[in-house]
From TrEMBL:
Pathway: Carbohydrate metabolism; tricarboxylic acid cycle; isocitrate from oxaloacetate: step 1/2. It comes from Sediminibacillus halophilus. This is Citrate synthase. The keyword Disulfide bond does not apply. One of its GO terms (molecular function) is citrate synthase activity. The active site is at residues 262, 314. GO terms for biological process: carbohydrate metabolic process; tricarboxylic acid cycle. SUPFAM superfamilies: Citrate synthase. One of its GO terms (cellular component) is cytosol. Gene3D superfamilies: Citrate Synthase, domain 1 (1.10.580.10), Cytochrome P450-Terp, domain 2 (1.10.230.10).
Amino acid sequence: MREKTSYKPGLDGVIASETQLSYLDVEAEEIVLRGYDLIELAKSRQYLDLVQLLLQGELPDQQERSTLEQQLKKEYDLPDNFFALFHKLPKQTHPMDALRTGISALAGYEQDLNGRSEEQIKQIALSLLAKIPNIVANSYHILYDEKVIAPRQELSYSENFLHMITGKKPTATEAAYFDQSLMVYSEHEMPNSTFTARVIASTNSDIYGALTGAVASLKGNLHGGANEAVMHMLLEGKTTDGFRHLLYEKLKKKEKVMGFGHRVYMKKMDPRALLMKEALRELAAVKNRNDLMEMCEAGEQLMKEEKGLYPNLDYYAAPVYYLLGIPIDLYTPIFFAARTLGLCAHVSEQYANNKLFRPRVLYTGPRGLHP
Ligand SMILES: CC(=O)SCCNC(=O)CCNC(=O)[C@H](O)C(C)(C)COP(=O)(O)OP(=O)(O)OC[C@H]1O[C@@H](n2cnc3c(N)ncnc32)[C@H](O)[C@@H]1OP(=O)(O)O
Ligand SMILES: O=C([O-])CC(=O)C(=O)O
């Protein structure tokens, strides 16, 4: 009986870990990142500032940010002949699976695979933050028989990431919203992928393995995969009326509507979605796509009225990426690239204060059988 009362399906509401990295304070409507409000940071800072904050503990000044950027730029290149790996993959491979393969393969090149100190993990984290955008963009280009786009040293970190994806130098507005999207995707307490990474790290396995597992977790459409699903839904709907009709049909069939609901914020709007909604409003105006904004708002309204459900980050990040000219198959890999930051910080924290994850079960099978 005691076991029954302590069992929470999906570990709903269960505290899995102590952390100094982040906390979702639903009452205060604040995503706390090392004491700062993520939304305030995303409005006033840059992704690289969050890198320093999460890996080092403090926000950088301009000089420190520029030193960090130089460090990352030195690590952009992948090992020789690394892209051969992606040429060998079947063409229908999803970019998330290519990314998973790529991160796993990087372990073989690591000189310090057994390093578990904070400093060693920070160095690997910086290398991953430098290389993962290259893997994301170029594994996609290879799978689609397009030319590889080399990193450009003269562009900022996020301008370069977006350039490697689209092949075009982004405008200042495009680069700013892309950077903001990386910030809001960077860290979010204990989602399934972070839990996965910490569970793997807790066996004292290496960080590449922990992140490889996290890619698989993030791919699912109940988690990161929802951003791609949202865009497919918007395109299928075509118009505001078409989109409304599509959502009604899904609800009638008791299907889940991607981009809505959240384990933690279920009855409130995800604060990150609100920020991406504003980004969409501005990008839609610049790109003459107010129709897309209208469709999204109509969907938001309908889901609130019909189900009392609110958008999560993926709902508004998807159309933002669409207007930035990003191929839909890359939305979840980009989410992962941004989340590499939070994941590395969590893995480091796990190593620093490790306890093997090994929960128990509520056994509901038979007993007393004999062969
Ligand atoms: C950045 C991110 O990763 S955010 C998450 C992205 N994922 C999505 O957008 C997928 C769609 N959303 C969902 O599936 C869910 O809201 C989740 C997985 C995010 C959270 O799920 P849980 O906390 O496990 O809640 P659960 O799925 O049990 O939902 C509770 C109730 O709300 C309903 N519900 C929740 N989300 C949705 C949705 N998107 N569409 C329709 N109904 C929904 C469920 O059907 C369920 O109803 P019931 O009690 O009548 O059966
Ligand atoms: O917190 C979660 O469960 C999912 C999520 O929004 C994220 O990982 O950003």
